[in-house]
Design brief:
It is a single chain. The chain is built from nine helices and 23 strands. The termini are far apart. It has helices at 16-22, 48-54, 63-69, 79-91, 104-112, 134-160, 177-190, 251-270, 277-290; strands spanning 6-10, 30-35, 38-43, 59-62, 95-99, 116-120, 162-164, 167-170, 173-174, 193-194, 199-202, 223-227, 230-231, 240-244, 296-298, 301-303, 310-312, 319-323, 335-338, 341-344, 348-351, 354-359, 362-365. It folds into two domains: 6-128, Creatine Amidinohydrolase, Chain A, domain 1 (3-Layer(aba) Sandwich); 132-365, Creatine Amidinohydrolase. The mean pLDDT is 96. Strand 2 (30-35) and strand 3 form a beta hairpin.
Amino acid sequence: MKEQSFLIIDSSENSADLYYRTNFFVPDPIIFIEHKGEKILVLNELEIERGKRDAKVDKVLSFSEYLKKLPPKKRKKRIITNIVDLIFKELKIKGALVPGRFPIKYTDELRKLGYRLRFKQKEPFFEERLKKTPMEMKFIRDCLRDTSKAMEFARRMISSSIIRNNLLYLNGSELTSERIKGEINSFLSLLGYSASHTIVSCGIHSSMPHHTGEGPLLANKPIVVDIFPKSQNSGYYGDMTRTFVKGEPSKELKKMYRTVLRGQKIGISMVRDGVKVKEVHEEIVDFFRRSGFRTGAMGGKQQGFIHSTGHGLGLEIHEPPIIGLGEETLEEGNVVTVEPGLYYENIGGVRIEDVVVVKKKGCLNLTRYPNRFKV
């Protein structure tokens, strides 16, 4: 592949690719250029000294200094792309590869200035992100360790509750989805994580995989707890799901839980370098079907195993590869979730999720938290 220039205009809060390439957190859009192997950041006065100290780049340029070079008319509009224009001319850059998410505003402006911009259709922008380094795996393992602590915190709240009129009560008041989510998020905040859209869903809500849950928690019904915090230190995510029940689950629910747990073990046993993702997914779907749990339209709704088996995890909560019906192949160094689930409106949902790293002859489970159903 011939040498090419790269351009990103974004904040590292929004662009995992930008953070990956620079190791620099910044909340506002900045300019990143990579040309002939040299990484360049253009920062304003607010960030420039921190950038010179912390950013893993070859050169940090001053936004203000380039602004002064612009004619007065060009300082009033299209400021960012006019500054890119100045730098491109200095570096003799005629065109660049940009992310698929690159704003059309900047694309149009730069093309009008005569630059050839091509966007990369395949994510992520820097494909090296798909194979995690030992340091990245340490960051993810650290996140999972603290995610386990938060999961145990939630489990203890549910376990310590008492049943009254088919509802759960803790310390004299109703135990609700909102209450546990708030406690989980606060707990993780103290450990240095941001957690949002945490799932604590019960009963019929648990039959909808991404329903975050609401209202009182019920006895004898599944409670799906899905926690996926982001480290404010490293920028990497953890991800874990467990399903609990307080009380006595129905015979059908018990069978469903055992089936999902077995399905996950099947999936983990198949994950290795060179395996096609659809083979893993289809094997679990087939096992569920043979166990009596069909997937498809029922009562006007899609029910059963209605999502992919897993996804990549790293600087984004959902990264390639997706373990589903696609044509991707797992490679050594991929870090992926394995999270099969079953969802039926009349029973509720069950999902169990661990994170594994793909190895040559199998995988290593990075999640260190047991599976407990009845609490």
